[in-house]
Write the structure tokens for this entry.
Amino acid sequence: MYCPQCRAEFREGFTRCSDCGIELVEVLPPVAPNSSEPAENERPDLASARYFLAWFVPMCVYLLLLFAYSFRPVLFRNIFITVLFISLHIAEVLGMFWMMYQAVRHERRFGRYALLAMVPFMFVWYSLVRVPLRKEFESDSPFIR
Ligand SMILES: [Zn+2]
């Protein structure tokens, strides 16, 4: 038995909380979230799906264009496809160097993040997921500098 107000547990046979004087319940109701932000953090499934797509979609387009460039170079007579590919490629290379710099500068185990940076557009995931996490724990974690 639990008190719904102070959330204290009581042995069987008690019906009222000795402190609050209110009726005890079998099952405690879930804690109401104080604000929307922690509630969002409790749903990593939603957040990670969004962040996953932010990385996955540009990576797929980039790889597709890379394959197209190898097997069907005719496609690149289309100026739109060429410009798209070059833009993605520049973003990819800049992002890779940015992520490597971030890894060497801030991560204690920078090897894995430097390796991850090789994956096309992994820097999108890094900037969305890892950087906020890093900033949150920067002050009191021995693992993140
Ligand atoms: Zn109570």
In short: The longest helix spans residues 44-71.
